[in-house]
Amino acid sequence: MIIKCPHCGPRDLAEFSYHGDATLTRPDPASTDRDAWNAYVYDRTNPAGDHREYWQHSGGCRRHVVVSRNTLTHAITDVRFAGERK
């Protein structure tokens, strides 16, 4: 799989580290709601189709990116730096 880093250009998957689901909403850091934190940390779905994921270009610029890809075909439709708005 080739991921097009916005800074470095197209790179092989081996240069990246997977960092998880980019669709989750983190609870308020001051929250003591154990159920909310448990759901955020441990509950995962296994989506079939389009999905957004965090990756780090650990073998290159070391920036975090959000990759939009289809989990069935691995076709990547968008890559942007984490924190950028779509």
From TrEMBL:
From the Swiss-Prot or TrEMBL record, what is one GO molecular function term? Answer: sarcosine oxidase activity
> Origin, by domain of life?
Bacteria
- Please name the GO terms of the biological process aspect recorded for this protein, alphabetically: tetrahydrofolate metabolic process
Q: Which Gene3D superfamilies does the UniProt record give?
A: Folate-binding superfamily (3.30.2270.10)
InterPro entries, A to Z: SoxD (IPR006279), SoxD_sf (IPR038561)
Transmembrane ranges?
A: none
For this entry, the protein name equals Sarcosine oxidase subunit delta family protein
Native source species: Oricola cellulosilytica
